[in-house]
Amino acid sequence: MVNLEWYRTFKAIYKTGTLTGAADSLFISQPGVSLHLSSLEAYVGYKLFDRTGRKMMPTERGKVLFNAVSEPLSKLEDVEKNFQKSTEKLTPTISVGMCFETFQTTLEQYVSTLPFNLIISFGQYPEMLDQLDKGILDLIITPKKGVSPNIEHEAFSSEQIILVGGKNVDTNSFQKIVETKGVEHIEGWLKQEKWYGTTGDMEHLFQFWIMNFGHKPNFRPNYIVPNLNSIIRCLKGGTGLAVVPDFLCKNEIENGELKLIWEGEKKLENTLYFGCRKKTNYQSEIEHIKGLFRKVMGKYDHVAHL
C-alpha cells in the first residue's frame, strides 16, 4: 500500500523544484526526500521527474499524477490543520530514540509530567541516527555522532564503563593480583568468575576488554539476560561480574548492593550526545527533554566538566 507521505513529498518537490527545497519545507532530510521519491516511483512504475542540473522537472506522467493528487492532498492538509487547531497544536507529539536502559534510568520517572505527547523508540544507534535524519525521530540520545549535515550533536554528559560485581565477590584477592601481577593474571582471574551479558549489544564488554587486554574476550558470558538493567538486578543476588556504564548502577554501588571491582588500567569513557535535526518544529519540547536529562545526569561527578 502506498505511503501518503510519499505523495506529500512528491507535491513538495513539484512545488519547490528541488530536493533541498522539498526537504526544507517538510523539515526532513534530503536523503529522506530522495527515499520517498524513489519509493513512489517504484510503486507507480515510472519516473516522475527528470533531473536537469539541480532542478527537478516533472515528466508528463509526473504532471498527470500531480493533477490527480494535488486537490485531494490539499483537502487532507486542510483537515489536518483544522484537527491540529483543536488537538495536536495544543498537545504536540515528539518522538525520541535512546537505549532502553537509558530511558529507564533517566526519562521514565518524568514521563507523566510532560506537557506534550511522547513516543519513545528503542534501537541500535546507527538505526536511530538514520531515523533522525529521515524525520522519523525528533531527538536521540547517543554515544556516537553521525555524519549527516542535517543533524547537530550536543555533548551533555559522559558515561564511564566499569567492571562491577555482586557484593559476595572476593575483591581482596583480585586487588592483590592488580597490585602485584601483570594483566595476564588479571584476565585469568576474571575469566574464572561467572559473567553476565545481554541478548543484544555487547559493545561495552568488547571495548573494555580490548582497552585492557588488547583483544576481544575469548569467552561467553554464563548468563544472558534481556538488558543491562536486568544484569544489575541479577548481580544484586550476590555473585557474578559484568561490564556496564557507571550511571546505571551508581545507587546500587553506594548502597552496598554491588561492588565496583575495577575501572581498568585505563578509564573507558563515552561522551553522550543529544542529536536533533537543525530544522525542527519542536524546539521547545526538545529543550524540555534535554533539561530533564541534564538534571538527572548532573548527579554524576565525573560528567561535570562537559
Automatic annotation (TrEMBL):
Belongs to the LysR transcriptional regulatory family. SUPFAM superfamilies: Periplasmic binding protein-like II (SSF53850), Winged helix' DNA-binding domain (SSF46785). The lineage of its organism: Bacteria, Pseudomonadati, Bacteroidota, Flavobacteriia, Flavobacteriales. InterPro entries: LysR_HTH_N (IPR000847), LysR_subst-bd (IPR005119), WH-like_DNA-bd_sf (IPR036388), WH_DNA-bd_sf (IPR036390). Pfam families: HTH_1, LysR_substrate. Keywords: DNA-binding, Transcription, Transcription regulation. Residues 2-59 form the HTH lysR-type domain. It comes from Chryseobacterium pyrolae. This is LysR family transcriptional regulator. The keyword Protease does not apply. PANTHER family: HTH-TYPE TRANSCRIPTIONAL REGULATOR, HTH-TYPE TRANSCRIPTIONAL REGULATOR GLTR.
